[in-house]
Amino acid sequence: MRKLLIVIATITSLIAPWLVVKRMDQTANLTLNCVVPFTINSQKTNSMLMNGMIKSHYYSNGSGIGILSGNMHYRSKDSNATTSYSLHRNIRFTYQQSHSYVTTHTQEMHPAFGESIPENLADEYIFPSFKKGFNDYYQIHKMANGDMMVSVANMPRLYCHVN
Q1: What are the residues facing 110 on neighbouring strands?
Q2: Is 10 left (phi over 0), alpha (psi -120 to 50) or beta?
Q3: 10 Å Cβ neighbour count for 130?
Q4: What's the rounded Cα separation, in Å, for the pair 74 and 53?
Q5: From CA 29, how far away is CA 136, in angstroms rounded?
Q6: What is each CA distance from 56 to 51, 76, 107, in whole angstroms?
Q7: For the residues of 50-115, what is the DSSP string, one character each?
Q8: 68-118: per-residue pLDDT in tens?
Q9: Do 104 and 58 meet the contact criterion of CB atoms below 8 Å apart?
Q10: Average pLDDT, stretch 54-79?
Q11: Residue 155 host element (H or E)
C-alpha cells in the first residue's frame, strides 16, 4: 500500500507542473472574434467608394484567419463611367501577444470565389493586412465586459468579442 502511495505521489508530482503550464499557455493567448463594417470614400485623382465587412478570428494557438468581403465602385479621372468590383479575400496570419501589444504577420492571401477587382486596384486600395507578408502592430485593451478594444495610437480600430 505504501509503495502504491509513493508511485501515485511521484506520478502526480511529475504531471502536475505540466498541467499547470498547459493551462497557463491556454489563458495567455487571445481567442477573439472581430467584425468590422467599413466604408471608405476617396475623391482624389480617381473616385473610389468601398464598403464591406472584415471578420478576423484570433485562435489561442497564435494563428488566425481574416475575411474581407464587400464592393468597390471606381471611376478613373479619364472616365465618366463607374465600374463596380466585388471584394472577397481570405488570409491566414500568425500573431504574438506581449502584454498589451499584438503583432500580426499575414502568411497567406487567397482571393475567394467572386472577387473581380483588378490586381493594380487591389494593390492600391485594399487594406495592407490583406496582402501576403504584411506585418501589423496593435495595442489591446480589455473592456469591463471582457471584450477587447484593438487600437493604434489610442485611436479605436477594432472591437472584438472574447470567446
Answers
A1: 90
A2: alpha
A3: 20
A4: 18
A5: 17
A6: 17, 31, 14
A7: EEEEEEEEE-TTSEEEEEEEEEEEEE-TT-S--EEEEEEEEEEEEEEEETTEEEEEEEEEEEPTT-
A8: 999 999 998 888 899 999 999 999 999 998 888 889 999 999 999 999 999
A9: no
A10: 93
A11: strand 155-162
Closest among 31, 33, 35 to 59, alpha carbons compared: 31
Residue with cell 493567448: 29
pLDDT in tens, 24-41: 444 446 688 888 888 989
Measured torsion, CA atoms of residues 71, 84, 72, 110, in degrees rounded to the nearest 10: 70
Residue for grid cell 487571445: 30
CB 149 within 8 A of CB 161: no
Amino acid at 1: M
| Mean pLDDT over the full length of the chain | 81
The alpha-carbon radius of gyration of the chain (Å, integer) is 22
